[in-house]
């Protein structure tokens, strides 16, 4: 089989099945697993898959830089935000992660809502400046410009000194097996620190993140209360998450 044909076959399997198992593809094509792994390395280098043990998963488009992500699935993010704001009770404290879906949440919060918002994102804080009844706490540290958030030791230490009723957390990948993932190790650590300070944590996941994976795991499934997504209830990943006992709030 020519390299181009092998590549096309792998992309087709990834699109149809949502994952590639190297040994199964090798058996189907009558080639070695090493040949499959080399092809997967090439696809991963192009950002077309995320390699995992034994094969590969779809790569998340949400690992692009902040400016580029603002143009990815804006309608889906607004739908997710509309569901997420219903979880924010008057008088409560909210930890709001950074990222473009979290920004949609900030923009959707009622302007007269009496609440406390804790964030490590300057863009989130700026979006809430015109909310007169929202108390704002901005956690500081080294700014990770890719996502426009504070990360690193100083930011994690600051997060350890707050607590909240609810954390709304952004990720770049939501997969039943790979879990909740993102593309940067320090950002993943910061997300864990934020989630640990809230009574409940819900994951903001517009549909392009469902079934995708990135390199670094953020949290195991048992550490989150649920997932908010605009992917339909008949989506295979959404169905699997529900069968595993994960609460999934789907946007209409």
Characterization of the model:
The chain is of the alpha/beta class. The protein has 10 helices and 15 strands. The strands form 4 sheets. A 7-stranded parallel beta sheet has the order 6-5-4-9-12-14-15, sandwiched between helices. Helix 7 links the parallel strand 5 and strand 6. Helix 5 packs across helix 6. The longest helix has 15 residues. The protein is elongated, with a radius of gyration of 19 Å. The protein starts with a helix and ends with a strand. The model has no long low-confidence stretch (mean pLDDT 90).
Put the structure in a nutshell:
It is built from ten helices and 15 strands. With 252 residues, the protein is α/β, with parallel strands linked by helices.
What is the helical fraction, as a range of percent?
Answer: 25-40%
Q: Kindly provide the radius of gyration, computed on alpha-carbon positions and rounded to a whole number of angstroms.
A: 19 Å
Count all strands and give the number: 15
Q: How does the helix and strand content classify structurally?
A: alpha/beta
Uncertain runs are none
Q: Distance N terminus to C terminus?
A: 45 Å
Q: How many strands, which pairing sense, and closed or not: the largest β-sheet? A: 7 strands, parallel
- Strand order within the widest sheet? 6-5-4-9-12-14-15
The succession of helices and strands, N to C, reads HEHHEEHHEHEHEEEHEEEHEEEHE
Give the amount of beta strand, in percent: 15-25%
Shape: elongated
The averaged pLDDT comes out at 90
How many helical elements? Answer: 10
């Amino acid at each position: 089989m020519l390299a181009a044909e092998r590549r096309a076959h792998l992309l087709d399997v990834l699109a149809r099945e949502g994952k590639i198992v190297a040994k199964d593809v090798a058996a189907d094509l009558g080639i070695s697993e090493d040949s499959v792994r080399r092809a997967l390395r090439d696809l991963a280098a192009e950002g077309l898959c995320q390699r995992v043990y034994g094969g590969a998963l779809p790569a998340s488009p949400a690992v692009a830089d902040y400016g580029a992500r603002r143009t990815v699935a804006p309608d889906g993010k607004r739908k997710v935000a509309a569901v997420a704001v219903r979880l924010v009770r008057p008088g409560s404290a909210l930890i709001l992660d950074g990222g473009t879906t979290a920004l949609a949440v900030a923009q959707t919060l009622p302007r007269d809502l009496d609440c406390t918002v804790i964030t490590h994102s300057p863009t989130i804080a700026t979006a809430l400046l015109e909310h007169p009844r929202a108390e704002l706490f901005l956690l500081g540290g080294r700014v990770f410009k890719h996502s426009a958030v504070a990360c690193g030791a100083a930011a994690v230490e600051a997060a350890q000194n707050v607590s909240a009723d609810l954390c709304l957390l952004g990720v770049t990948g939501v997969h039943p097996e790979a879990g909740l993932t993102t593309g940067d190790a320090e950002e993943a650590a910061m997300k864990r620190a934020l989630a640990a300070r809230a009574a409940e944590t819900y994951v903001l996941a517009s549909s392009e993140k469902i079934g995708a994976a990135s390199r670094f795991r953020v949290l195991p499934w048992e550490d989150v209360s649920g997932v908010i997504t605009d992917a339909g209830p008949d989506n295979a990943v959404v169905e699997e998450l529900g069968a595993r006992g994960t609460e999934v709030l789907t946007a209409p």
